[in-house]
């Protein structure tokens, strides 16, 4: 099938790549000329493991092209994916301006039946809204062209995007006509996954409910971690014991310094706003937003309890992206932590396998290590913000010898506590500090 994907960010690139891999002919469109030039040269503008070689292969086979011209991309296309950003507005709702722009542009160029697919995360009712925008444009052109708008939300995890798209847990298809449903089932016929056929409004809600539920699970274990700390209980053991119950499951039960990223904070906020707009206070969502907001403050208080005043202290942060295997730093807890540590007067050095430069652009006054070993030189404390495998696997004896102090604050409970204690570190994890009986 001939497919157009609008927006070549984390979601658009992965959608284009995985659909190209199963034999479809793909046009990727973006307004960012540099991105399009890079992509046409086989260079991935983001860090996402495994995607670049697949793009290079598809380009070579002529199955994938990138352009800044939507009009050109739309020629003969059967399906258009909208995968543009929906960033958070200051009032908490998602900004739909990029989706609206794209819908208008589609309406300006459409001449025959196309299935338009909302892949961006958008509030309930957006499929109908996109439909009305396109209709309006067609009316202005004096045309009456049949089309459908489908909601097909994306559930990929950055860092594992390609494997998620090749083998998703489920594909949610919110279709309002049989024709659109048939087109979407044909599109995905070679992907082995559960297919959940439902209405566009249900599909839109499934995306927000899923992300908010995962954020709730993380926040629950973070609150448990705070209590564990006060009661001399190890939250890692607790989560392990809980996760063995199939009804609970082990995932998203790792206590830490809070969730971040481009999705959870904005999607929880958007769902809370959807409730507010129909006069329903979403009390669980409100609580998890508050708890998550305070998680870095709580963490910082624990650092101060251990180290005393931080003014003039040299602290190294390892892992700065919002999670491992991505260069995405949107809403990364490391950003909040750096800001707060700087306000306390600490001297900060940071290192991340791929996101260091992005952090340096935001905080030009902090030092960035060329590698983890140079970053920890003379540090009085090391803080793990993100559990990259290459950070967990560091030679911690060497790290200790390079440092000027011996504190390690494991913000992701990712390191081997016993080994570090044997190496002479004062180890502090989230919710696993058994000496703190009150
Ligand atoms: N990143 C994720 O892990 C993830 C996962 C699931 C869902 N989502 C959702 O998917 C959507 C996209 O997220 P993302 O992280 O890929 O965003 P992104 O910011 O990485 O990419 C968006 C792209 O859209 C382009 N764009 C904006 N306006 C355009 C226009 N008029 N025409 C063509 N291109 C245009 C931008 O230049 C950018 O390259 C969001 O709604 C997000 O919430 C993201």
UniProtKB/TrEMBL annotation:
This is UDP-glucose 6-dehydrogenase. SMART domains: UDPG_MGDP_dh_C (SM00984). Residues 316-417 form the UDP-glucose/GDP-mannose dehydrogenase C-terminal domain. It is an enzyme of class 1 (oxidoreductase). Substrate binds at residues 155-158, 207, 252-256, 260, 323. Keywords: NAD, Oxidoreductase. It comes from Paenibacillus anaericanus. It comes from the Bacteria. Its EC number is 1.1.1.22. InterPro entries: 6-PGluconate_DH-like_C_sf, NAD(P)-bd_dom_sf, UDP-Glc/GDP-Man, UDP-Glc/GDP-Man_DH_C, UDP-Glc/GDP-Man_DH_C_sf, UDP-Glc/GDP-Man_DH_dimer, UDP-Glc/GDP-Man_DH_N, UDPglc_DH_bac. The keyword Oxidoreductase applies. NAD(+) binds at residues 30, 35, 86, 121, 158, 266, 330. Pathway: Nucleotide-sugar biosynthesis; UDP-alpha-D-glucuronate biosynthesis; UDP-alpha-D-glucuronate from UDP-alpha-D-glucose: step 1/1.
């Amino acid at each position: 099938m001939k497919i157009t994907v609008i927006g070549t960010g984390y979601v658009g690139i992965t959608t284009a790549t995985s659909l190209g891999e199963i034999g479809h002919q793909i046009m990727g469109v973006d307004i960012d000329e540099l991105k399009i030039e890079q992509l046409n040269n086989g260079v991935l503008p983001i860090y996402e493991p495994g995607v670049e070689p697949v793009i290079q292969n598809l380009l070579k086979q002529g199955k994938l092209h990138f352009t800044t011209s939507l009009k050109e991309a739309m020629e003969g296309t059967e399906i258009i994916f909208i995968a543009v950003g929906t960033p958070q507005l200051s009032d908490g709702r998602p900004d739909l301006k990029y989706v609206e722009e794209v819908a208008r542009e589609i309406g300006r160029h459409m001449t025959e039946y196309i299935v338009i697919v909302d892949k961006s995360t958008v509030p309930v009712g957006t499929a109908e809204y996109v439909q009305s925008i396109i209709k309006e444009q067609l009316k202005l052109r004096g045309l009456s062209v049949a089309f459908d708008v489908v909601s097909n939300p994306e559930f990929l995890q950055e860092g594992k995007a390609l494997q998620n798209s090749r083998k998703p847990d489920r594909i949610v298809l919110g279709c309002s006509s049989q024709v659109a449903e048939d087109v979407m089932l044909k599109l995905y016929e070679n992907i082995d996954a559960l297919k959940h056929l439902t209405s566009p409004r249900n599909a839109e809600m499934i995306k927000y409910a899923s992300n908010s539920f995962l954020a709730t699970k993380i926040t629950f274990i973070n609150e448990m971690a705070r209590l564990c700390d006060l009661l001399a209980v190890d939250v890692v053991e607790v989560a392990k014991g809980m996760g063995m119950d199939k009804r609970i499951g082990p995932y998203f039960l790792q206590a830490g310094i809070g969730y971040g990223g481009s999705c959870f904070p904005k999607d929880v906020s958007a769902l809370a706003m959807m409730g507010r707009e129909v006069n329903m206070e979403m009390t669980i969502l409100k609580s998890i937003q508050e708890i998550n907001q305070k998680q870095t403050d709580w963490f910082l208080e624990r650092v101060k309890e251990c180290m005393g005043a931080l003014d003039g202290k040299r602290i190294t942060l390892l892992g700065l992206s919002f999670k491992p295997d991505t260069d995405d730093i949107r809403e990364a807890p490391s950003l909040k932590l750096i800001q707060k540590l700087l306000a306390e007067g600490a001297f900060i050095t940071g290192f991340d396998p791929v996101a260091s430069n992005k952090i340096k652009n935001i905080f030009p006054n902090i030092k960035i290590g060329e590698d983890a070993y140079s970053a920890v030189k003379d540090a009085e404390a090391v803080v793990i913000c993100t559990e990259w495998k290459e950070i967990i696997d560091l030679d911690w004896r060497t790290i200790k010898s390079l440092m000027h102090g011996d504190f390690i604050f494991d913000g992701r409970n990712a390191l081997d506590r016993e080994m570090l204690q044997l190496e002479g570190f004062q180890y502090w994890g989230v919710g696993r500090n058994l000496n703190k009986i009150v």
